[in-house]
Write a structure and sequence with these properties.
The chain has 229 residues and is an alpha/beta fold. The chain is 47% helix and 13% strand. The chain has a 6-stranded mixed sheet. It starts with a helix and ends in a 6-residue tail after the last helix.
């Protein structure tokens, strides 16, 4: 109970410090601020899932700010850039932009009405969420989403600044090859050639640490039987 209250206080402080009244959520702070899966009381959330290139999203942006100001203290109004937070888009089944979802009392529902200020505010105050919340995205899905984002960023850099990007890629490959060569070279195992120690004649022969002692040719000659002439 105390932990839930503490989380709620930190969430309120973070929301108060945000520029404007629309809270910007991402994969790092989404659960921390909303507490949707834990059930902590951070309030109701009206969240816009959007893409920066979407024309409808751009036209809705100023209206969304007005909605956030009007609902301040009653409903938390937020936004998520799905192009930068693919895992969240995957988790909540975002197929088009903008998608407006209301989260209330542990459930969610999708808005499909007019996108005017009055219509959005009236619906956010009175709508009942009926859909169950989805489970968390698997770690593999998050990893794939992160990889796709990195590749898209790389392609964007190649399109805008091709020469520096090519130099960076070639430099990275060369460094990787050098490090691989160093690591492979350090793993070679060297073995000493076996050294045999000859024991004094007449003494007991003992095996050395590197193997058995060599055969004494003189001893072999002594053991040979003499032939009759």
């Amino acid at each position: 109970m105390f932990l839930s209250a503490l989380v709620s206080i930190f969430a309120v402080i973070h929301i108060a410090n945000c520029e404007g009244d629309v809270v910007e959520l991402d994969e790092a702070n989404f659960e921390h601020l909303t507490q949707l899966t834990t059930g902590a009381t951070t309030g109701d959330w009206f969240i816009k899932f959007y893409a920066p290139w979407c024309g409808h999203c751009k036209r809705l942006a100023p209206t969304w700010e007005e909605v956030a100001t009007e609902l301040k203290g009653e409903v938390n109004v937020a936004k998520v850039d799905v192009t930068q937070n693919r895992a969240l888009g995957k988790q909540y089944g975002i197929k088009g932009f903008p998608t407006l979802l209301l989260f209330r009392r542990g459930k969610m529902t999708k808005y499909s009405g007019a996108r005017s200020k009055d219509a959005l505010i009236s619906w956010a105050k009175s709508a009942e969420a009926t859909d169950e919340l989805p489970g968390p995205v698997p770690v593999t899905e998050k990893a794939i989403s992160g990889l796709v984002k990195v590749l898209e960023d790389l392609i964007g850099v190649l399109n805008t600044k091709p020469i520096p990007a090519i130099i960076l890629i070639v430099g990275g490959l060369l460094i990787g090859i050098m490090l691989g060569a160093i690591m492979c070279g350090g793993s070679v195992e060297y073995r000493d050639r076996p050294v045999y120690v000859q024991q004094p004649k007449g003494g007991a022969q003992q095996s050395t640490a590197n193997g058995p002692p060599p055969i004494d040719n003189d001893e072999n000659k002594k053991q040979e039987p003499k032939k009759d002439k």
